[in-house]
C-alpha cells in the first residue's frame, strides 16, 4: 500500500516548523498549498514574485493576474505581498526561505538531485530550481518512488543531469520518507504496509 498524493503532501507539511517560509516547485508540491492549515502561519513564496500563496481559487475568485511560477492560478492569504524577480531571487539566494519542496526524477545517496531534463526530450529549462536547492534552508523532494517503467528513483548515483550536488535533506515518496546520508538512504518513516524489500533501495 502506498500514500496518495494528498498523504504525501500532508507528510511534507508535518515537517515544517511554525512560522516558516516555504517555496513550492511545480507539479506534486503545489498540492501542499491546497492542504495547508490557514492558521499555521506558514508563508508560501513563489519565485515569480508572490509571498502568501494560499491554494487554488474558486470560479468566483479566480484572477488571470494571480499565478504561481508554474503559471497556475492561485489564491493569496491576508497580508500577501508582490515583488519583482530580482527581489524574489534575492530572498532565495540570500537564505531567507526556510524550506523548498521540489519534484524529482532522481535523488542519490550523495544527496544530489536531478529534476530538470531527460536527454533527448524537450527541455523547458531549469527555472529557479538551481537557486532554490542552494539557497533554501532545507530541501525536501516530493516524488513518486518509481518511474513509469518501474525503476526506483532513489539511486546510488544520479544518471540524469544534476540540478544540484549534495543539496537534498529529505525525500518524501508514496512509499515513505527517506534521508540520504552520503552512503545510503536512511528510512525515516514508511507508508502503511510498505516493507523495506518493496523499496529497491541502493
Give a structural overview.
The chain has 202 residues and is α/β, with parallel strands linked by helices. Helices cover 15% and strands 24% of the residues. It has one domain (5-198): Glutaconate Coenzyme A-transferase (3-Layer(aba) Sandwich). It has four helices and twelve strands, in the order H-E-H-E-E-E-H-E-E-E-H-E-E-E-E-E. Strand 1, helix 2 and strand 2 (43-46) form a beta-alpha-beta unit. 39% of the residues are buried. The model has no long low-confidence stretch (mean pLDDT 91).
Which whole number gives the mean pLDDT?
Answer: 91
The CATH architecture can be given as 3-Layer(aba) Sandwich
> What's the total count of β strands?
12
The CATH superfamily turns out to be Glutaconate Coenzyme A-transferase
Query: How would the global form be characterised?
Result: globular
Strand content: 15-25%
Instruction: Report the biggest beta sheet as strand number plus sense, adding barrel if it closes.
Output: 9 strands, mixed
Oligomer: single chain
Number of domains as seen in the coordinates: 1
Head-to-tail CA distance between termini = 21 Å
Count, helices: 4
Strand order of the largest sheet: 4-3-2-1-5-8-10-11-12
Could you name the ranges where pLDDT drops below 50 across 5 or more consecutive residues?
Answer: none
What level of helicity do the residues show? Answer: 10-25%
Amino acid at each position: 500500500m502506498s500514500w496518495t498524493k494528498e498523504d504525501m503532501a500532508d507528510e511534507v507539511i508535518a515537517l515544517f516548523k511554525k512560522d516558516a517560509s516555504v517555496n513550492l516547485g511545480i507539479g506534486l508540491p503545489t498540492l501542499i498549498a491546497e492542504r495547508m492549515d490557514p492558521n499555521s502561519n506558514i508563508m508560501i513564496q513563489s519565485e515569480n514574485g508572490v509571498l502568501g500563496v494560499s491554494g487554488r481559487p474558486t470560479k468566483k475568485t479566480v484572477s488571470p493576474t494571480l499565478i504561481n511560477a508554474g503559471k497556475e492560478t492561485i489564491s493569496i492569504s491576508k497580508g500577501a505581498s508582490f515583488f519583482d524577480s530580482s527581489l524574489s531571487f534575492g530572498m532565495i539566494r540570500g537564505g531567507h526561505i526556510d524550506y523548498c519542496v521540489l519534484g524529482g526524477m532522481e535523488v542519490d545517496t550523495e544527496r544530489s538531485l536531478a529534476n530538470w531534463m531527460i536527454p533527448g526530450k524537450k527541455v523547458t529549462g531549469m527555472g529557479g530550481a538551481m537557486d532554490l536547492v542552494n539557497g533554501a534552508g532545507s530541501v525536501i523532494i516530493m516524488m513518486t518512488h518509481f518511474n513509469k517503467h518501474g525503476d526506483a528513483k532513489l539511486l546510488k548515483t544520479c544518471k540524469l543531469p544534476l540540478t544540484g550536488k549534495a543539496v537534498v535533506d529529505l525525500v518524501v515518496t508514496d512509499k515513505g520518507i527517506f534521508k540520504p546520508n552520503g552512503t545510503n538512504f536512511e528510512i525515516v518513516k514508511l507508508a502503511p504496509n510498505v516493507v523495506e524489500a518493496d523499496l529497491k533501495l541502493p
